Amino acid sequence: MSLTPDLVISGKQKTLDYINWEYWKNKITPPGQVKTIFLNPNQDNSDHYIVPESLWKEGDRALLMHVYGGIGGPNGDHTPFGIYFGHFAYGIATVVRDRLTQDLRFNIEYRQIYTHNCDGIISGSLDWTRYSGDRQFGWLGSRPFNDIIIKFDPLTQDYDFNGFKFSPLDIVINELDIMTARYRVGDGTGTTFVSAINSCSQDSSQALYLSLRRMLAQFELNPLLMKWLRENPHHEQTQRFIQLRTLVASLESILVTRGKARKDWRYGFSNPRAFYPRNSLKNPIPIKL
After folding, report:
1. Which burial class, exposed, middle or buried, applies to 252 when counting CB atoms under 10 A from its CB (0-12, 13-18, 19+)?
2. Which of 54, 118, 192, 199 fits a disulfide with 186 by CB distance 3.0 to 4.6 angstroms?
3. Closest residue by Cα to residue 169 from 265, 94, 66
């Protein structure tokens, strides 16, 4: 949880190479150990060195992406065709001051969009100490996982346009909370199943997509906000807002197949065939949130 990394990678190409190739090598992190890596694509090694700890202050928040892999060994996870599908989730990392050491550290809280399972994990907001670090219910020491903390000011910092305040990160987390609640009750059926359409990665991405698209749509229909942006084109908040719109467009090109969102992504209701157990309801009515 420390802000001090074990390894620093600088430069855009070196960062991409590390993410795509180096990190996934078998021996990058020895079994039973944790390794913290700071990726700084905006600065080359030839530039003045940035101390990673200096980029954070108490109370800062960041978007977190979590992924885990399968348990290996003779009694490991079942891997048909040599493939284990793993798990993906978003969350939030907050810089807090540790009560014992008085040093700054990350406090990690997941938004787990999780189906009903035999591991006792409930869809919702789970602290790192419960989901990852607990030796009875968590994954500590039993499977490899990776937490990526993203500090991107246009997304993670709040805005204040002459009293009109909003937080993109809060909007994203709120949509994730809605999705976790839907998973807990199966949209009213009591059960949530994994399918080709509904899964942790699919519905986490749906929540992210819906939150950012709705946010931009609401703001673009706000004449006072648009007027402020036109009158202050060089303001720091305007530049951040432009970057946020670029981010949404970039994510949309990745998340939306062939430029058109699925109907359930556009309107925010579930696919009855995926959520509802067979023959439980003859004509289930999709719930619109």
Report:
1. middle
2. 192
3. 94
Work out the average pLDDT over 40-54: 69
What is the residue type of 239?
Answer: Q
Q: Count of residues for the chain?
A: 289
Q: 63: which 2 tokens? A: 């978007």
> What Cα–Cα distance (Å) separates residue 213 from each residue in 42, 171, 210, 265?
27, 11, 5, 11
Residue whose pair of structure tokens reads 């998340």 in the numeric block: 255
Q: How far is CA 6 from the centre of its chain?
A: 23
Dump pLDDT digits (tens) for 270-286.
Answer: 543 344 333 333 333 33
To 5 degrees, how large is the angle CA 125–CA 131–CA 136? 140
Non-local CB neighbours of 123 within 8 Å, separated by 6+ positions = 112, 113, 114, 115, 180, 181, 183, 184, 192
Q: Judging by DSSP bridges, how do beta strands 7-10 and 37-40 pair with one another?
A: parallel
Cα–Cα distance, 224 to 147 (Å, whole number): 39
Burial 218-234 (b: 16+ CB within 10 A, else e): ebeeeeebeebbeeeee
Question: Alpha helices of the chain — where are they, by DSSP H?
Answer: 12-17, 128-131, 153-156, 168-185, 200-220, 223-231, 236-255, 263-267, 272-275
Give the three-state DSSP class for 287: coil
Are the C-beta atoms of residues 23 and 38 closer than 8 Å to each other?
no
pLDDT digits over 202-259, tens only? Answer: 889 888 888 988 888 888 888 888 899 999 999 999 999 999 999 988 888 887 766 5
